[in-house]
Write a structure and sequence with these properties.
Blueprint lengths: L6 H9 L4 E6 L2 E21 L5 E2 L13 E15 L2 E8 L15 E13 L2 E10 L5 H4 L22 E9 L3 E9 L14 E9 L18 E17 L14 E17 L2 E13 L4 E13 L1 E3 L2 E13 L26 E11 L5 E12 L5 E12 L1
Antiparallel strand pairs: 1-2, 2-3, 2-4, 2-19, 4-5, 5-6, 6-7, 7-8, 8-9, 9-10, 10-11, 11-12, 12-13, 13-14, 14-16, 15-16, 16-17, 17-18, 18-19
């Protein structure tokens, strides 16, 4: 069937606080949902680099920080169409807008574009997905960004580097378990001098509930009654053609200096819900395998929130910790003294220890909430540190 809207009607529907349109036809029901996500953030930081000089986390360099930085963390518009066993989804995003200066990163881009078919047979659900999507692994990235316990993601999003790519996925699930497999284009950018095949990205995941049914994925149940436990393991493989400098003198490289490398990651996670408590513990390990050596990295995080209803408002205090080691064997990165980061708006620091304490104010669960969090990062091998205060408001409808 065909759905048509005038420009005025479409504008009014997009501006509505929450809506969906269901159209009935003789043999099916078609449902159209339009979603809007707005996350606006204010950030303050007082930090020092390894030499004891002022460091601006927002710009990722040695500099005096502004008293406060305002920017848009996420701005997204999505459309989902469901008919019988089929689902289509498209999302546009403009994330990290005006991060360091007015007018920066405001251009929207295509983030997701996929079609999905779900079939049920003999108690098992088989789901086939094709298109532009994130892999169904690395739950710290795969979990809904609208339902984070803190303004920032968990540090386990560092490995592998979070991204969306074109590919296919198969999932098989039952009441208490699910297995999935993804095949996508490589997540590494093509190098102009490479003439070999780029390869493909592979991911696999298994998650199960020891007792009861698999719970929905979220970092906070906002005090919903009930209890559940989910345990998951996953792995990814991402090849990359890299350039070597045989002479070690920084001279120009040629196609003859191209060698094959690979990012191989493994992860395990636990999601627990018991009434007002939501807790997550997860860990990720990456091997960047090169002909010359292997760089091992690991991140371990744990977080817990306790939701307290107070009339129409739910207040949820939360704490989180992270251990970040980007070079376990000190082969490369840890040989030099490290600052928080060299990237602007980085949500997590280099190798070191990170702790967060915060509170969430839910006016309408995750549809309308304010998050306030203080983060402290300390370097693994120097006196560098970062103190960051973030306040973020989210509207999601």
């Amino acid at each position: 069937m065909r759905l048509r809207f005038s420009h005025v009607a479409l504008t009014a529907l997009v501006a509505a606080p929450a809506w969906s349109l269901q159209v009935s036809v003789p043999d099916s029901t078609t449902k159209l949902d339009i979603g809007v996500l707005m996350q606006n953030r204010a950030e303050m930081n007082a930090s020092e680099n390894a030499a004891g000089k002022e460091f601006d986390v927002n710009r990722g360099k040695t500099a005096v920080a502004d008293p406060i930085d305002f920017y848009g963390r996420r701005a997204r518009l999505s459309i989902k169409l469901e008919r019988n066993s089929w689902t289509g989804f498209i999302m546009f995003s403009a994330d990290n807008t005006d991060p360091t200066s007015t007018g920066g990163n405001r251009n929207p881009k295509l983030l997701y574009l996929w079609a999905q078919n779900k079939l049920t047979s003999q108690g098992l659900t088989h789901t086939f997905t094709a298109g532009l999507d994130k892999a169904h692994a690395q739950p710290s990235f795969d979990d809904p960004s609208t339902q984070h316990l803190f303004p920032t993601t968990r540090a386990t999003t560092l490995y592998p580097v979070p991204t969306s790519a074109y590919g296919v996925r198969y999932q098989m699930g039952a009441k208490n378990f699910e297995v999935s497999a993804d095949v996508q284009n490589t997540h590494n950018a093509e190098r102009a001098t490479v003439t070999e095949a780029e390869g493909l990205f592979y991911a696999g995941r298994v998650v199960f509930a020891p007792v009861g049914s698999l719970p929905k994925r979220t970092e906070s149940y906002v005090g919903e009654p009930g209890k559940s436990l989910a345990i998951g393991i996953d792995g990814t493989f991402d090849p990359e053609e890299i350039m070597l400098d045989p002479a070690g003198n920084g001279t120009s490289k040629t196609t003859d200096d191209t060698v094959s490398a690979a990012h191989i990651t493994f992860g395990a996670d636990l999601l627990a819900h018991y009434g007002p408590v939501t807790a997550i513990v997860d860990a990720r390990f990456q091997n960047f395998v090169r002909p010359t050596n292997t760089i091992q990295s690991q991140v371990i995080t744990g977080q817990i929130g306790y939701a307290i209803p107070t009339g129409s408002l739910v207040v949820e205090p939360a704490v989180r910790f992270a251990i970040i080691d980007k070079d376990v064997d000190n082969t490369d990165a840890d040989k030099k003294l490290l600052n928080y980061s060299s990237s602007a708006n980085s949500e997590h620091g280099n190798s070191g220890y990170e702790g967060d304490i915060g509170v969430n104010l839910y006016f309408r669960k995750h549809a309308n909430k304010v998050q306030i969090a203080f983060s402290r990062w300390e370097s693994e091998n120097s006196d560098a540190f970062a103190n960051i205060l973030r306040v973020q408001h989210q509207l999601n409808f």
